[in-house]
Every structure is written in C-alpha cells, then in structure tokens.
Design a protein that fits this description.
There is one protein chain. This protein has about 280 residues and is an alpha+beta fold. It is built from 7 helices and 13 strands. About 50% of the residues are buried.
Length: about 280
C-alpha cells in the first residue's frame, strides 16, 4: 500500500557526494526498502499500523550517465509535500504488495496518511544536485495512551475508499492483536518509520540506509528510545533486519481471514506482515 517503490537497495560502503555521515557504512543492504509501518495517532495513542513497503522493479532502461550521484540528506518540510507525493506515486503506491494485490489505484486517503506527519520535521529526503527528491523516509511520533483516553475509532470505519478500507481493516486487526506499549512498558513514545521509498533508478547507492541512519540520529537527539516499523514487504523486513531491527510481531497473510475467506494473497516472497523494532538505549 505504502506509488512506485523500489525493492532493492544496496547499502554500499560509501556514496559519493553524500554530506551526511552513516553509522552503517559497512553494511550492505541488498534490497530496496519501502517500509510500511502505518501507525496512526488518534487521541495521542497508537491506533493502527499501515503497511510500509519496499517493492519495485528496476528501471532497466535507465542510463548510468543520467543518474546524478551528488546527493544530500535533509529534513522534509510541509513545503515538500507535492514533491514527496510525486515520488511516492511513481515508486510506492503502485508496487507495495498490498496495494498491488488490491489494485489500489488513486487514493487520496493514502496521500493524506503519507504526509500527515511532515509538520513534525522528523522525516528526511535524499536530493540530487538538480533539486530532485530521489528518496524519502517518512516518520511520526506515537505517544503512549494515558488512563482515561477514549479508544479511537477503527480506521476502516472512517475509510471511504473500498480497496484502501480492506488494508485499513487489516491494520485494525493488527492493532487489536499487538500493543507495543505492553511489550515495552517503560517506553512513553516511539518513532514510527511509516514509509521508506527510493527512486528505482537510484537503487544500489545506499540511500535507504542513509535515510534510516538520519532517522536514528533524530531519535537519539530527541531522546526517543524506540524505533518501530511495520513491514508488509519481505524486502523491507530484510533491510531492517540487516540494520539490527528485531521482529516482535508476525501475521502470515494466510492467517488473516474475514468470514473464513483469506483477504490478501500477494505474490511471494511477501507472505507476512511483520513489526520490527530497534531500541536505542541498549
């Protein structure tokens, strides 16, 4: 679910022109990551997770001399909204496994979800020397529910788009089955990596890893002790595992049924929705 996405990104030892240091320069990320961790905050509580995914095919027609390797990493602001959506529509909306399976098409509700946290200034973009955004990581802070908080409404109940509603219903189900604050009772908030998307023409340059590194730096500076990502894609989960994230929840798509019917059956190797986390205080 989480516009054309890239499935394969190698995190190479160095990226010429990148101005941001990376704690994972020695790590090789062999898959392009589009993490779909869709946790929506309602009444200051984690209400649900929407898929973050890493799925796209390479543009075999791209010429090496067309790729601008002079890249920089910087904070996304609300002024970047249209450019961010342009990237997602070309590389994320189309190829995320659940989006592909339901043939989602245009979805304004998904666009709103993707950009709702940009005002936090916790999301980052990779930009080439021509000023084009070639990769993004979209993050948002989720606060622990407080005593007396009203339970939030189901995501699917307020979703008008019939295909997107199916995905939201899955997120509601996950929210019912798993509470991250029960697993980490000492944590009062966490940073949710909702979407990581990289232009397929820029795969193999370590951009996904660099964007994730910057997210980890942001969390450390702001005393956020836990990073969370919900992966609907096999490839995104592999990337996060290589960056020392640990799986804490798994739901095989074959096990999610409504009235006895399996709702999602994306192409292999996408067989399960997984939640992975990384603690920064250990």
């Amino acid at each position: 679910m989480k516009v054309d996405i890239q499935n394969h990104v190698d995190h190479l030892p160095a990226l010429n022109g990148i101005t941001v240091s990376s704690a994972h320069d020695s790590l090789t990320l062999d898959e392009t990551c589009l993490m779909l961790s869709n946790l929506l905050t309602r009444s200051n509580r984690m209400a649900s997770k929407a898929p973050s995914i890493c799925d796209a095919t390479a543009n075999v027609g791209a010429k090496t001399n067309e790729i601008d390797k002079q890249l920089s990493i910087s904070v996304i602001t609300e002024e970047d909204t249209e450019d961010v959506l342009d990237l997602l529509k070309r590389f994320f909306f189309k190829d995320e496994p659940l989006n592909t399976y339901v043939q989602l098409g245009e979805c304004k509700e998904l666009e709103k979800y993707c950009t709702k946290s940009l005002g936090e200034r916790s999301s980052y973009k990779a930009v080439n020397s021509r000023g084009e955004i070639v990769g993004v990581i979209l993050n948002g802070t989720i606060m622990k529910p407080q005593p007396g908080d009203e339970p939030p409404p189901k995501l699917a109940d307020g979703c008008a788009h019939p295909k997107f509603r199916k995905i939201m219903a899955l997120m509601d189900h996950v929210d019912e089955q798993f509470d991250i604050f029960e697993l980490y009772p000492d944590i009062d908030r966490f940073l949710d990596c909702k979407i990581l998307s990289v232009d397929t023409n820029y795969r193999g340059m370590g951009i996904a890893g660099l964007l994730t590194d910057r997210t980890l730096e942001y969390a450390t500076r702001n005393d956020i002790k836990l990073i969370h990502v919900l992966c609907s894609s096999h490839f995104s989960a592999r990337v996060m595992e290589k960056m020392d994230f640990t799986e804490v929840f798994r739901l095989p798509y074959a096990d999610y049924r409504v009235n006895g019917e399996q709702i999602f059956d994306p192409e292999k190797p996408h067989v399960a929705l997984r939640i992975l986390t990384k603690r920064l205080d250990h």
